[in-house]
Amino acid sequence: MTMAKATRSIDDQLAELQEDTGEQHVAVTFTLNAVTQTVLLPSRTLASDAIRHHLRQTGTHVGCEHGVCGACTVLLDGKPVRSCLVLAASLEGREVTTVEGLVEPDGTLHPVQQAFIDCHGLQCGFCTPGFVTTIAAFLEENDSPTREEATDAIAGNLCRCTGYQNIRAAVLRAAEIKRERSGEFPLGKDDESARASLDRKVRGTTNPVGGRAGRA
Ligand code: FES
Ligand code: FES
């Protein structure tokens, strides 16, 4: 990957790359985690490879490369897509957000990221970025999901090690955090018994191992 240099025209750079490598290259301008840039890539480059290998946003993981596991999910103009199924060239003019881009500028974790910590929603973490981006998009559409809706929201992503109970709990906890942050959380700060009851409702029968579970 070559970042486009202002001193030589992009066409010249593309021609030179093609001559050097024997491979057709394309110039793609898109926004990745709020930074707009033009990159020159072999035209066959997948979005997942461009993001992860060329632009070093390594939070995006690549598992199956066939659109099955969901590990490579990013937000494309706010919608979840499997980046292993998208050519980098088709990102032209689009806005891509990876798991890194969900963190607030002041370092505050996205509600889904915080919820995965609260509910112990990961073990090895390989699948986690795909779940986090998928759930973040889902909560934009529905910030008060039922357990069934939470289950449906994660049904397309695969996890090999942690099971889905805690991940589903994280969906519900993330919704709670989102509502809390928007000032809609219905409970008073000191209402511990109501909070405990909500924890049980959020976690259901899940019993995460160790540490604080359900609430920060
Ligand atoms: S790596 Fe893209 S869906 Fe599995
Ligand atoms: S936490 Fe390991 S694959 Fe999901």
From TrEMBL:
It holds the Pfam family Fer2. It comes from the Bacteria. InterPro entries: 2Fe-2S-bd (IPR002888), 2Fe-2S-bd_dom_sf (IPR036884), 2Fe-2S_ferredoxin-like_sf (IPR036010), 2Fe-2S_ferredoxin-type (IPR001041), 2Fe2S_fd_BS (IPR006058), Beta-grasp_dom_sf (IPR012675), Diverse_Oxidoreductases (IPR051452). It comes from Rhodococcus opacus (strain B4). One of its GO terms (molecular function) is 2 iron, 2 sulfur cluster binding. Keywords: 2Fe-2S, Iron, Iron-sulfur, Metal-binding, Oxidoreductase. Residues 182-202 have a biased composition (Basic and acidic residues). Signal peptide: none annotated. This is Oxidoreductase iron-sulfur subunit. Residues 26-102 form the 2Fe-2S ferredoxin-type domain. Residues 182-216 are annotated as: Disordered.
